Each structure stands twice: as C-alpha cells, then as structure tokens.
Amino acid sequence: MNIMERYGASPEMLEAVGKEADHKLARITAVHRERYELVSEMGNGFGRLKAGNYYGKEETFPTVGDFVEIAYNAQGDSWILCTLARHSVFDRMDPSSSGHWSQAVAANFDYVFLLQSLNANFNVRRLERYLTLAWQSGAEPVVVLTKADLKPDFSKELAAACEVAAAVDVMAVSALTGQGMEALEKYMRPGKGIVFLGSSGVGKSSLVNALAKKELMETGEIREDDARGRHTTTYRQLILNENGTIFIDTPGMRELGMWDVTEGLGQTFSDVEELAKGCRFRDCRHQKEPGCAVRAAIAAGTLSEKRLINYQKLRREAKYSEDRPGYFREKRAAYKKRSMPVKR
C-alpha cells in the first residue's frame, strides 16, 4: 500500500491524477491563510493555489481533508491545480462573511465526533445544531460526551442527548481515566476518517491522544470559573494515526451558523417533521392553527416546546442562507401584517 492509499485515496483517484510527469495526487493536511500543508507520494510539503485555476472560476477551494491535483515542485511550494470530488464535507456559515457564503471546515471523512463535556458545556440546543450540520455533511454523526470522570451521575445528560440524537450512537467517556473509551474502538479502522467538532475546552485534543494511545496533540487547562478552555488547537489539521485511522482536529467553534441543511434538518428533527405531516394545513406554522398535530403533541407532553422552537429557528437560518431575497420578502410581509392593526 502506497502512502496515498494509507491517507485514504481510492484507486480511481490515483488513476485520474498523474497523466503528466510532474502532476501528483496530494491531500491537504492543514491550511494557513493562502498556504497549504499537503502530503503526496513525494512526502510532506507545501502548496499554493494556481490563481488562474481558482479565482474567477467554479473550482472548489480546498480545505483540510481534500484531495487535490498538484504540479509538484521539489524546490519550493507546489501549485494546487484542482480539487477532486468530495464524498463528505462539513459546512458552516462563514463567521466573517455576514451570512454571504459558507466555510468548509473539513472534507472526506466517514464519522463526525460531536463533543460536549459533561460539565457546564453540555447544551441540548447546541447539540441539535451540530447534529443538523453533521447529518448534512454526508458522514455518520457520533455524539461523545467527554469528561465523564467529572460527573458522578450523568444519566440525565445522557438521556437528554439520546432523545435529540435519534439513530445516533451516544456515549459518555473520560480520556483521563479511560471510562467508556472501548465503545469508540469500532470507529478506529484503517483508511477511515474522523473529524472532531466541539466548543473550546471540551477535550478534543485529549480524546485524540487517548484514541491514538500517544501524545499527538497539545492539551490545555480549562478555566475553573466558567469551564471554558483556551484553543490548544489553533488550526485545522489532519493526522494519520499509526493504526491507519485518519484524524481531523479542529479549533473550538464559537459560531455555528446554518448553511444548506435541508437534509440535515430532516434527519435531526425527524420527529417534528413526521408530526407536521398530520397537520390539517400544509403550510401550518404550528402556532394556533386548528388541527395542528405538532401543537397536539406538545399539549400531550410527547414533544418539547423548546425542541419545536429550536427547529423553527434553524429552519429560518437555513432559509436565510439558501434564499436571502425571499427570506427578507417574507419578513417584510410579516412585519406589514403585524403593523396594520396598529395603523388602524
């Protein structure tokens, strides 16, 4: 097995690239502004985008985990010529774009480990947000509740996570004591990629080290007053573990805006959408409409009001990212409708 196969390249990828002598298949292992770390059959190196191939064109800008075709340069940075098709990608709204475009966090992975720690960090509504984007990515989400050693009884948090993460593995672990870590072993397979996502201080780097059984990542302390941590991972990076599993570690995310999550919402909130099919009106807003199956479920106690509110909030965010002009037209129309009685 050559180095690129160990990094997850398929035979089709290897066949598609390299028709010219200096053209090689490479994988992005880190991104530093306009410079990319990459690995190819020639070893580790750096690359830059060939401007004429990317800027003003429809070529996908690469992110960590992407496979790319490069024009190899042994004396300096190679040219990155194009980005190969992805089988999965984790997208969020770019925090610096004011909602105008998305940011690809990682690409070409098989599992998304969604981390929340069993201290002040645990938040069901945030977990629903992560799950929605994880399902949309095309990979399989796995909910990992970390720092189980700090919580003698975490049954309440575990039950809450299982309730919102239907059809998803949910497990509580401690990287410090090894508690529950054996449940994650089934994901440690050669050629399979795992991306680790969560807020700062949830223990992503500690979990990576525990799974690798060696110190791959630098770890840091968390503040005692608010249980938040400093960013020990300062940039996204891809690491090939000794057993062949591929890790993609990411810095803690403070913002996680929705971007094109139609499928992800359906997976995460399948209970809400299934109930909505039983509403009398197709355009039911689940407020005071007669025959609303969703309101009936809330009244019966089988659906949480907070879950419906979060579902509607994420749907509005998704609609904003997909159709901003339409979103603002609807918002103006709703405002005019509310203001009419006041004017009268």
3D architecture notes:
This protein is of the alpha/beta class and 344 residues long. It has eleven helices and 13 strands. A hairpin with a 5-residue loop joins strand 12 and strand 13. The chain is globular, with a radius of gyration of 23 Å.
Labels describing this entry:
11 helices, single chain, alpha/beta, 344 residues
In DSSP terms, counting alpha (H) and pi (I) runs of 4 or more, how many helices?
A: 11
Our measurement of the CA-to-CA distance between the termini, rounded to an integer number of angstroms, reads: 77 Å
Shape: globular
Secondary-structure-derived class: alpha/beta
Oligomer: single chain
How helical, in percent, are the residues?
Answer: 25-40%
Mean pLDDT figure: 84
Whole-number radius of gyration?
23 Å
- The count of strands amounts to 13
Largest sheet: 6 strands, mixed
Portion in strands: 15-25%
Question: Which strand order does the major sheet show?
Answer: 10-9-8-11-13-12
N-to-C SSE string, H for helix and E for strand: HHEEEHEEEEEHEHEEHEEHHHHH
Poorly predicted ranges: 223-231, 323-331
